[in-house]
Task: structure prediction
Amino acid sequence: MKFRWLAVAALSSMTCVSLMAAPPPPERGADVVAQYVGSRPNQTVKGHSGITVVGLKIIHSATTSEIKGVAIPNDEPKKGETAKPKKEVDDAVKKLKEGEYVKAGYGESTLGPTLYSIEPYDLKPGEDTKNGYVFSKTFEKGAGKTVIFTKFGVEYPFAVPTRRGEKGVMELDPDIAAAVDKLTEGSSYWVQTGPGKKLVAIEPYTDPQIGKLLKLKEKDPEGHRTLEADIEMDGGKTITVKVPSKTVGTATVFDTVVSGELRSMHANSMVEFRTHDDGGNTLLREIQAAPKNVDKKPAEAAKPDATKKEPAKKEAAAAK
Result:
C-alpha cells in the first residue's frame, strides 16, 4: 500500500528500454513544501534505467495536497560504469523519514517530474494545524489594512475588519488593529477568520489543551440560551466551556463553526481545544478530536506504556 503512489503517479510511464546515458538536467521550477512519502531505487522511467523515484505529498494550500512521484536524475556515468542517481539529491533523500516535511525543487525533464533538490523544511509551531499561521507582513490601501500570513510557504491575505466610527467615518476595528500592530515577522499565531476573510481573533500560537469531553449541555437561564460542555482536565479537574453566541432580535445565535465542531464530538472522547476568557466566562475557540495516540485520561496520557518491554541490550547497542 505504501508504494501505490509510485505505481500510479510515476511508474505508469516506465518502459523496458535500458540506456546508460543520463537524462538532461531538469528545468528548474519553484520550490514547494511537501511531506516525504518514500522512495524506490533502480526503476526504469521513460527509457532511463537506474532511476530512483521519490514520493512526495505536495502541499498546495491549507486544505489541498497532491501525491506525486518525482525522479532523481542520474549523473553521467564513467565509461564502463552503471548510471547512478545524483549523489547530493540521493544522499539527502536517504536521510529523510516518512512523513517528514521537506522543501523540494522539481521541474520537468525527459523523465517527467524531476527532483533537483530536497532538504528538511523548517516547520514553525502550529503551521501544520488548521488555524496556525506564520506572520509575514501587512500593507494598507486607503482606509483598509491587509495582513499576510503564510502556511507551508503559501501566502494567505486576511483583512482587518472596519466599522463606522463616532463621526460616521469608516475605521479599523481597534482591537484587531492593536493585535496586528504587535505581530512579529516569522512568529506563529493562532488566527480565526470570518466571512470575507476578515480577521476575528489573533493570538500567539500555543499548543492546544487536551481533555476528556464529559457532556454537552444546553441551558436557557432567564430566556438566554447557552451551549456548554464539561471537560475533564489533567488531575481530574473539570472545567465548563461555553460556545460564543450573540443575540439577534430575541434569538440567541451560536457561533456556527464552534458549535458544529462541539456537536460532532462524542461524550467520553479525548479532545484538544482552545479557549479564551471573556469577563469570567471561558469561551470555546475551537475543538476537535485529540490525536489517536491520546486515548486515555489526561493524567495517564503522558505516562509511558508499562506493557511495552524494554529493548534487549543487543538491540539497544545496535541502535547506537
In short: The longest strand covers residues 31-45. The CA atoms of residues 243 and 273 lie 12 Å apart.
